[in-house]
Amino acid sequence: MGSIEELEKYALENNVPIIQKDGLNFLIKYIKENNTKNILEVGTAIGYSAINMALVNQNIKITSIERNKEMYNLACTNVRNFNLENRINLIFGDALETEIEGTYDLIFIDAAKAQYIKFFEKYKINLAKNGAIITDNLNFHGLTKQPETIHSKNLRALVKKINNYKDFLKENKEFNTKFYEIGDGIAVSKMD
Ligand code: SAM
Fold first, then answer.
1. Is ligand 1 within 6 A of the CB of residue 96?
2. DSSP labels, 118-151
3. Are 27 and 54 in contact (CB under 8 A)?
4. Which residue puts its alpha carbon closest to atom 9 of ligand 1?
5. 21 within 8 A of 86, measured Cβ to Cβ
6. Among 19, 108, 110, residue to substitute to test ligand 1 (most atoms within 8 Å of Cβ)
7. Range in 87-91, 92-96, 140-144, 157-161 the model is least confident about
């Protein structure tokens, strides 16, 4: 896959969850406005968001973690096809067990939704001063606003965890979070 359209087509046809267009445009705008250079992404999938973020400008470097071997392999191929292997460092592993050194201007959390609090707590030490942690899918297709309509027990439990994460952000004394009704619901958390 050597074009953005091909990545989108592959994701659609193979049910790979990638960031929605509105959410991606929000990220790109954030990166441009804040002159973001170093990005840590939790949840690579096929590399769609990482490649799009890296294409914003030549100074951007990204480290992205993925635990699914098939996804990781696809992402490696895609990153190579875009000649971005010098600027996108892909790590295969469970982000809850990966040790990452250094600090990042932007940490984008886009992996298993039930673990969002754990990712946030683990990676906040890697956040540069004035950096932000951005999380996606906080509306979870609108379900977080009407959990009573969900019939599946597992889905209800997941939506409850996402709502717990939102409460965690709202009550967090260390970070100030703004919520945006963009894409599938985005939060930008900065240190106070
Ligand atoms: N950021 C990608 C994009 O927009 O192109 C989409 C990522 S997709 C929503 C979530 C990915 O996170 C999946 O590929 C999944 O395998 C991965 N993932 C889930 N939990 C993870 C974990 N604990 N560590 C690493 N990757 C994880």
1. yes
2. HHHHHHGGGEEEEEEEEE--SSTTTGGG-GGG--
3. no
4. 17
5. no
6. 110
7. 140-144
CA atoms of 192 and 176, how far apart (whole Å): 6
**Domain boundary assignment for the chain:** 4-191
CATH T-level fold of 4-191? Rossmann fold (3.40.50)
Q: Distance, CA 7 to ligand 1 centroid (Å)? A: 15
* Per-residue pLDDT tens over the stretch 86-102: 999 999 999 999 999 99
40-83 per-position pLDDT tens digit = 999 999 999 999 999 999 999 999 999 999 999 999 999 999 99
Q: d(Cα 105, Cα 171) in Å, to the nearest integer?
A: 23
- Does the Cβ of 136 fall within 6 Å of ligand 1? no
